[in-house]
Write a structure and sequence with these properties.
Keywords: Lyase. This is Amidohydrolase family protein. It comes from Saccharopolyspora rosea. By secondary structure, the chain is an alpha/beta fold. It has one domain (about 1-350): Metal-dependent hydrolases (TIM Barrel), CATH 3.20.20. The protein is built from 13 helices and 8 strands. The protein has helices spanning about 20-30, 70-80, 100-120, 140-150, 175-180, 210-215, 215-230, 230-235, 250-265, 275-285, 295-305, 310, 335-350, and strands at about 1-5, 85-90, 125-130, 155-160, 185-190, 240-245, 285, 315. The protein has an 8-stranded parallel sheet with strand order 1-2-3-4-5-6-7-8, with helices on both faces. Strand 4 (about 155-160), helix 5 and strand 5 (about 185-190) form a beta-alpha-beta unit. Helix 3 (about 100-120) runs parallel beside helix 4 (about 140-150). The longest helix has 18 residues, at about 100-120. About 45% of the residues are buried.
């Protein structure tokens, strides 16, 4: 089993100071952290989660924030569920995408990547790392992908679903070019819908957290339409697009609409050689958490089967967050289980059949 959404973090962003470009160190050390504030700099979200963003039982017994203690993560997640691999996505680090200063954002991303490869990657053979980039600095993002993308522990490039423009836009083509060159997928994790980025929904910010959380899939819809319409699979072979924590039930309806409109309006995008849904089957991957649960469970699998969902879905738990999905309690069709829990991620990330020594 492979878990494609595991959040590792720190107790204080001060851990980045030794890795941060000296030209930007004061931004963090004197501009962000004084006064007891230890969190990563980012533009704050407009909603308050009424229960908090984490599972209460994931606080390490020795103290510290959830996701910061390797031994406790190993006990609660890696060993308990006998994972072959865990794809680490960091915690606050991906919020670099919300910052107005693109040079500072890229400097923070570089510092995080060096820190996670130095500290977390060596702890366990099962860990694979996501390279965080700042998409508001696409040339800087491309340079960072090339700088660390060849590391044997790097599985993918990571951005947020919140962005200034949809990810197929030519603004981001330098990032796609570098990912294609390094043979790495680009993953968009739910979030980053604040700061310099667009509103999380087409009508503006929601009032309540549950309302916003349910509708954050809108950004995923826009990104899928954009990467397909701009022909990213044709222009940049060797990469794929992973949507993390954006839901899955909406994907069939969006692809059906894209197919219908493409057939009527295909003169706008003459570079496309296939239907959008055919590209999506090969190019788009979806993590399962949070998995929608209709009253008739078969309804979800029937719809997903129409678009090749068995080849697109990859299991994720979202540990240690509040809406964690237990792989033993999450039901998949029997014939889908091996692909969703293991095979699809193993093929995407090129992971060996066994991880080797555990810890």
């Amino acid at each position: 089993m492979i878990d494609c959404d595991v959040h590792n973090g720190w107790d204080s962003a001060r851990v980045l100071l030794p890795y941060l470009d000296p030209n930007f160190r004061d931004y963090l050390d004197r501009g962000e952290l004084p006064g007891g504030r230890e969190s990563f700099p980012h533009a704050h979200r407009p909603w308050l989660h009424p229960e908090g963003y984490i599972r209460y039982d994931t606080f390490p017994p020795g103290g510290g924030a959830p996701g910061t203690d390797y031994e406790f993560m190993r006990e609660q997640l890696l060993d308990r569920y006998e994972l072959d691999y865990a794809i680490l996505l960091g915690e606050e680090s991906v919020e670099v995408s919300t910052l107005a200063n693109p040079y500072y954002a890229s400097a923070l991303a570089r510092a995080y990547n060096d820190w996670v490869l130095d500290t977390w990657a060596p702890l366990d053979e099962r860990f694979q790392v996501s390279v965080v980039v700042a998409p508001q600095d696409p040339h800087g993002a491309a340079a960072e992908i090339r700088r660390v993308g060849g590391h044997p522990k790097v599985a993918q490039v990571l951005v947020t679903s919140g962005s200034q423009r949809p990810y197929g836009d030519p603004l981001y083509h330098p990032m796609w070019e570098a990912a294609s060159e390094m043979r790495l997928p680009i993953a968009a994790h739910l979030g980053g819908t604040s700061g310099v980025n667009a509103h999380p929904t087409g009508t503006g910010p929601a009032t309540f957290y549950w309302e916003a959380h349910a509708m954050l899939c809108e950004s995923g819809m826009g990104h899928v339409a954009s990467v397909l319409a701009h022909g990213i699979p044709e222009r940049y072979p060797g990469t794929k697009f992973v949507l993390v924590e954006c839901g899955v039930a909406w994907v069939p309806a969006v692809l059906w609409r894209l197919d219908a409109d493409y057939q009527a309006l295909r003169k706008e995008t003459p570079w496309l050689k296939r239907l959008p849904s055919e590209y999506a089957r090969d190019f788009v991957r979806l993590t399962t958490q949070p998995l929608e649960r209709p009253k008739n469970p078969d309804a979800l699998w029937t719809a997903l089967d129409e678009i090749g969902g068995r080849e697109m879905l990859m299991f994720s738990s979202d540990y240690p967050h509040w809406d964690f999905d237990d792989p033993y309690a999450t039901r998949f069709p029997a014939e889908w289980r091996d692909d969703v829990l293991d095979g699809n991620a193993r093929r995407l990330y090129g992971l060996p059949e066994v991880a080797g020594a555990r810890a």
